[in-house]
């Protein structure tokens, strides 16, 4: 279009219809949603990590407080299980994007089973810990941090259960797999949080 | 600021997981060697992480907001937003008007809560394609709620009126949300 024609077109459309939308104060909804989600999770986990660092650094409480011990080996195995479950979750998503429905189903079932193993293992870890929330600041922080993560795993397992049922009912295809994508994002996020919890609570 | 959204897609979230795993290993190893070396590693890792978020965003991850549609319709002509639920066969619109058809991907609360909206979107896409071809107009799939779909469309399409091809309830719902004339198609 020439400059003259462009100017003419501009004159024609001036003041036609309602005013143009004003975007300067508008954030894309999906971006805003993600910001709010991340912010809420940072505040939630951040509050518990603040308590953790306060107990360890400001109070100088030994970690774990003698005579208690943390089952680092079991937690390491659990970490490996959770990381593998992320890999199978990714496999499920990649499979359905390529139209491989059985690959997706296998990936989802394996992810669910590994997530369930993690949660059951954590429950046994709690039962055999040898301390309880009423035994001082260290056990309280330990149970709240790992318990909060466990709640996230439980929510993730519920989502995975829905996804798996839908996968076996043929709801997903190479073109339509939004449900797998969203569930996968949540599952990876839960695993990211576990890495932080495992490194700070069990290792450092 | 243009930023990579690390949770934008499953693939991005998976990548984030391994970035965090790598960072955690480095920080832990450094901290086990010497406490302050671990602190330094954490600071460096966080700086690198922020740099990673702000550089090289993936294509389509941080696009600018959509620009308003510039009408090619001569002045004095009508612009009409048509809201047509999935399954709508035909809509009558005045001749010569510039038309945008939006088909909301209507989903039940259970479907929306469980993310089972793929089929609803597919239905909406089918209807949008058919209506767009019939009317010779642009046609899009909208949100899972008719009023929200109308509101979204009006942000980028300055319509003079809204025609709704749904029931009275849908007309009333949209009428409550928008400030321009709304009537049944």
Description:
The complex is a heterodimer of chains A (204) and B (185). By secondary structure, chain A is mostly helical. Chain A has a single domain, classed as Cytochrome c oxidase, subunit III, four-helix bundle (Four Helix Bundle (Hemerythrin (Met), subunit A)), CATH 1.20.120. Chain A is built from 6 helices and no strands. The N terminus of chain A is likely disordered. Chains A and B meet through helix 1, helix 2, helix 3 and helix 6 of A and helix 1, helix 4 and helix 5 of B.
Properties at a glance:
heterodimer; A: 204 residues; mainly alpha; Four Helix Bundle (Hemerythrin (Met), subunit A); 6 helices; disordered N terminus; B: 185 residues; alpha/beta; 2 domains; 5-stranded parallel beta sheet
Radius of gyration of chain B: 24 Å
Helicity range of chain B: 40-55%
CATH class category of chain A: Mainly Alpha
Number of helices of chain B: 6
CATH topology of the largest domain in chain B: Rossmann fold
CATH class of the largest domain in chain B: Alpha Beta
What is the terminal separation of chain A in angstroms?
65 Å
Number of domains of chain A: 1
Strand content of chain A: under 5%
Order of helices and strands of chain A: HHHHHH
Shape of chain B: elongated
Range of helix content of chain A: over 70%
Structural classification of chain B: alpha/beta
Radius of gyration of chain A over all CA atoms, rounded: 24 Å
Shape of chain A: elongated
- How many helices of chain A? The count is 6
